[in-house]
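so my prof wants the structure for this chain in the tokens format not the other one, which i didnt know existed until like an hour ago. anyway here's the sequence
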Amino acid sequence: MTRLLPPAGPQRTLATAQLCNSIGDGAFYVTSALYFTQVVGLDPTRIGLGLAVAWAVGSLFGVPLGRLADRRGPRGTAVLLALATSTAVATFLVVRGFLPFVLAACLYATAQSGLAAARQALLAGLITKGERTGALAHLQSTLNAGLAVGAALGGLALSTGTRGAYQGIFAVDALSFLLCALVLLRLPAVTPIPAARGVKLAVLRDRPYTVLTLLNTVLLLRMPLLSLGLPLWITERTTAPAWLVSALFVLNTVAVMLFQVRTARSVTGAASAVRALRRSGALMLLTCAVFALSAGTPTWAALTALLAGSVLLVAAEMFQSAGSWQLGFDLAPADRIGEYQGFFGTGVTVARTLGPVALTTLLMGVGAPGWFLLGTLFLVASYAMGPTARWAARTRPLPAPALTPAA
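here's what i got, hopefully its the right format
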């Protein structure tokens, strides 16, 4: 059990902050769609459009807010952005039209994107370089645990189905980010780094890092694969029961919670990160091939293929996460961690925004061959990460002073 807990000190405090807001997020994710349609009265298509606009806006602000964390101090910036997220969630409680919904969603997405970048800068300032990937693995495990608890709370609200139940969940989410801000205040302050001479937002002109982020975005298509692509495939192309969608999601969540830390221990530097990413790509190709076999088969065969593919998928996910964390930090200049992590984090937003269109086209439009095309895409992107990382390493400037806790 102790191996599942991060070491005492900044790592455990960061994990506690992560747990606070991930419980709220889990409840929010489960209930938000029905709240906005049944309580607010918005059309589902307009909700999708509004969220797409919001996350596009949020991704644009991730880089400048990450830079703000570098220059003004990541702890204070993270606290303010956690409070901004809490305010945005609370605003949803009074939204009664499409335009106010979009404005509130833009505030929510912007604060979330900036908070992610500021947290990464804070982690870099408080935890040594060799311990960062392990710390991120603990945070990922904590995130999954919190999402599972939050999803259970959201399920209670869904079973009740009343306006008060939905609003109570949104209040819990707003409170969770308020608690996150209070926990972050317990961390030591990190000394801001003065702005260096040169191009502002230099990450936008860093071609190797841009290519690395693009390749990582391709690998992150595994996220909508689990939440959208696979559920559609199970219900539309296989004889497997619909409840399997929920069971496979629980399998993924629990597996990451239990084994992400152990998987990350094998990644200790750039070379091992590249190996982990290649292993992930090979596993994703095998995963897609196994999922493709589930179509047009008896129920028992479809269940077997889908279960086996899901086990391979979660293994690939854990290797991909550990490898990308290591490279994302190693190749970011020490005086621009927040700025670079803000940019690297846009891969998540892009994958979630554009991924559903790509996956539905490949899987539902092409069918079983689409799985093999998708698997090949994962394999090529994972193997391209190695040469790109070496290219980026050759173009790095001399090491800059690392962020350090303030006296």
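also thought this was worth mentioning. Residues 100 and 356 are 25 Å apart (CA to CA).
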